[in-house]
Hints:
By secondary structure, this protein is mainly beta. Helix content is 11%, strand content 34%. The strands form 11 sheets. A 7-stranded antiparallel beta sheet has the order 36-37-48-39-44-45-46, with no helix packed on it. The chain has a 6-stranded antiparallel beta sheet with strand order 38-47-40-41-42-43, with no helix packed on it. A hairpin with a 4-residue loop joins β36 (516-519) and β37 (524-527). α1 (43-52) packs parallel to α5 (170-211). The longest helix has 42 residues, at 170-211. It starts with 18 loop residues before the first strand and ends in an 8-residue tail after the last strand.
Amino acid sequence: MQLVLLLSCSADEDLSNATFSCPICRSPTSLNQRGLESLHHNQLLSSIISRYLDVPAQPIAVELPNEEILRCQMCEVEPGLPAERSCVECGVLYCETCFITCHRMKGPLSTHTIILPSAAAVAGGLVNKDILCSEHVKEKINMYCLDCERLVCSLCKLVGAHKIHEVGEIMTSYRNQKETMASNMSKVNDLSKKLEVYIKDLEAGCEDIKVNNEAPGKPRIESSICISKLNSIIVRWASPLRSAVSSYDVEYRVSSESDWSVMCVQSAVTQCQITDLEFDQHYAIRLRALNKAGYGPYTDEFTLSTMPEPPPVPILLKDVCSVDQNSIHLVWDQPPSHSAVDSYIIDYSMESSEDAWTTVRGIEDKDYLLSSLEWDATYHIRVRSVNRAGVSEVSSILTVQTWPMVPEPPIIQSEHSIGESNRFQLQWVCDPESSRVDQFVIEYRASNQGEEWKAIDAQHAQCFILRDLAFDTDYIARVRAINKSGSSDYSESVDFTTGSPPIKFALDSQTSHVNLRLSNNNLTAQYDRPGAKNRMPADDAFIGAAFNVLGDKSVTKGKHYWEVKVKNKTADRIGVAYRNTSRDALLGDTDRSWAVGFVQGDDRLYSFFGKKRRRLQYEAPTRPFSIGILLDMDDNYVAFFHADARAHLHTFRQAFSDPVYPALTVWPNEVTVVSGLQIPDHLML
Length: 685
């Protein structure tokens, strides 16, 4: 589009055939019949105005000499193809192909002015042709009249019609007019948008008038977007097309019944939840819309089913559940309920953490065998029931211990297995890697007889004393371990021999001091000074102040135990002695007798040997009390104990060279011996 800048000052005058004088050279310039139209066009300003009016600018044609051919400056080949377009701002000539490739009218390039190559040649000086003033021939255009809004030359300003007008530099005027046009175009666009809104409001108002005078159409509903829950159904729909709706009626009934129930829903809401329905039931549903014109048609009926009642929590029958080795047989029951159960889920774990649960699904019966479990492990087990409504809460947790593996045979510790008299202490250990043991069974029999094995339950103990065996007899014994899973093999057998019978003796009257009176079958000795007048001392009796007496049996081997009961606070001494110990010395005052006892006037206990006495740390007990004597001829020691308190008093270690006799010093009261006793269990080791 070509725009012609006209002089505002001559807009109403007929200028055809008019003549103007050049203000500089005074040469006349005549207009033809076209008048001002014969003047030259401002091509640059015409292009700018066209762009802001959203009218594509047409390339401006300027005649060039025939011999002048302008070529593309972006082609890679030489010479370039003939130019078809040119950018005023870039000052570059383009062929059609290079223009599309290198100068796409987007972004910052969209504001550039595109002209024909001939105009570009003129603007760029490729052709020697200037834009001249229409009034002053041969005068170049070089300024812009702000009052007339047209291009003028210097003479127009100095002596011409624009002498009193305000002029400006062409590019500055161009930019100002461009900004003004942009502002005006923005205002036009805003008014256009408001007009579009007004038109739409008018159209909507017309539609509402039409719609409100008609009954609504069918709501649009699909059963696939409706949701069935436990005892409720969520219904969703879309409003009828081109219909005004004030509310909806949602009607429902049990499929097998005829009576409908109605729920009213406001028009702004396009869903509702029907509650308090029956569990596991089929329901027919339909909808219709309502407005001022009345009810619209019903939708097609569709059917939805509620979920069954949630499944009940199973009850684990703990008394019925059983364990067999590394398997657990689970049994449970279902409490009374209207809800059916489709299957059950079992969760079990060796840990208390829920992350460690192992799950077994799809169990149809009310019992299940968990197999291939860990041996001797504690399991936590729970059960859940399942139906279409979901999964129930977990049952109470059942804690079960699987059986241990069959244990390994015990290992008898020979070094700690000891025989005493007619008893034998058997001690054993289990392999640390072996399974848990519930009990041990000991079997034994005499070695030289064809007797059957005798079994004794040792329970959990790993040390047991076989009692009431035959004296001086060879025996063989073995042990096996038992748990729920079975019995181990027997341990290796151990051979042992019982000891001699315990010594049973009385006091020997042939060795008794004349001042001692024996009674109770010679088991009690009492100091009796007045009675000595009626008794004659024996040839082997003790004499002087040695109120001693020996037992009538000696010990040459084995291990023997007896006790002496001390009645009151006396200077008694209890011990052992050789037969040939000095007859006029108290026990312990020679190197052939060993004793513990008291000193006259002192309640403290002392040990006596070789005329040396030593105070014992043990405090003297309240009397009467018993002193136990343990004589071991094989290990060469004699030990003394507080028999009632089971406390050790003193031990003499001596390699005995002669037979040893029980011996007593009695003064000034009485003592009683008790022999033939088994060695107490706590003295076996």
